[in-house]
Amino acid sequence: MHTPLAPLLLVPPADMANKRFLTAACIYLILSFFQSSCDAASYNVVRFGARSNGRTDSSQAFQNAWKAACAASGSSNMVYIPRGTFMTKPVVFSGPCRSRILFQNDGTIVAPPNYQDMGNSGFWILFTKLSRLTVQGGTIDARGTQFWACRRTGSRCPAGVRSITFMWSNNVLVRGVTSLYSQTIHVAVSRCTNIVFDRMRIVAPSRSPNTDGIIVQSSTGVTIKNSLIKTGDDCIAIGPGSKNVWIQKIACGPGHGISIGSLGNSLNEAGVQNVTVTDSIFTKTQNGVRIKSWARDSKSYATNVEFRNIIMRAVDNPIFIDQTYCPSNRCPRETSGVQVSNVRYSNIKGTSTTVEAVKFECSASNPCRGIRMRNIRITTPNRPTISTCEHVAGSSSGVIIPKSFTSIRYRQTIVMNFLCFLLIVQSFG
């Protein structure tokens, strides 16, 4: 298509006829380009029986449109949800497909008004066993309010569903999607490779239970960027078996912050490695950047982690390593076997609502190693700010605030120092 372009550009610009010809040729080339990009067949869910009134169950129409697009040949095909409100029960979009698939949503997908109609599968919208998938645009609203109320009253409630789940898939782009009021987790990623989330908007009330924004586990090459996440649980949680995770330009809050873990719930659990969180803002969250592990024996680990260029605004626990997690006293008199190592914190500033702006509660049996701090400036309004460090070794540089501490313990030895981050008794190691 593009071979005629170079000769056309050699036409003398002074020749008006040639200029008009050049303009027409350029328009033709542009139109041809767009025509070729639009050659992908479009499978509109309305043509398969979906109704945009927000009341009619369109689940089967969605799945039929998907099956047709997935089975069709060609370089790419599109499943299209036009403007309007479409109600669906749990739907599964599975592969492998014969071509690239664009799942284009220009409307709103809503859950049934009765949360019991979601069943017990744990999924609402599930994409599985796919490659070269793009999910783009639109809003999904799980209408989680009544489900949360059921959970709060202690009545017999279903387990709840995750709004969007990606499993056993690779080379996936999710862009410009809004997820509202999920019953539980908004977006879950499991056993995927090379998946990008861009310009996501995830919203649930601060008191909604277990409404994590994005959870990643057993996946490699995950990027989450340019997104707003407001939830009742972690904005982003990185679970066991995840590696090469890049998180950038996230506005988190309310919620529980960005967490690695919890890790070490089982003995042979996979670890987490190569995680970066950068250029992000936390506002009125329970935690800022956190690493959390169970206080029980495990071969899991968290290593090569970096938190940098971060702003904390009225965060309860801005910097937190918690290796004492043990709900309902399920691990009495145990310590965490998870090895936390090579964690870097740099250029982090802002305010803490508690006096303990930095807490490193590491394992007595597997102390944190290689903790590096550079240019940390976190204060508590109208009160002195302190750091708590237990069983930690590392180094610090640049300006470090808070400078005070409660105690530094390593191998059951209390080391008193003027600066928690110089804890790092250099003779150790």
UniProtKB/TrEMBL annotation:
Residues 1-40 form the signal peptide. GO terms for molecular function: polygalacturonase activity. GO terms for biological process: carbohydrate metabolic process; cell wall organization. Pfam families: Glyco_hydro_28. It is found in: Secreted, Cell wall. The active site is at 256. Keywords: Cell wall, Cell wall biogenesis/degradation, Glycosidase, Hydrolase, Secreted, Signal. Gene3D superfamilies: Single-stranded right-handed beta-helix, Pectin lyase-like (2.160.20.10). InterPro entries: Glyco_hydro_28, PbH1, Pectin_lyas_fold, Pectin_lyase_fold/virulence. Belongs to the glycosyl hydrolase 28 family. This is Pectate lyase superfamily protein domain-containing protein. It comes from Lactuca sativa (Garden lettuce).
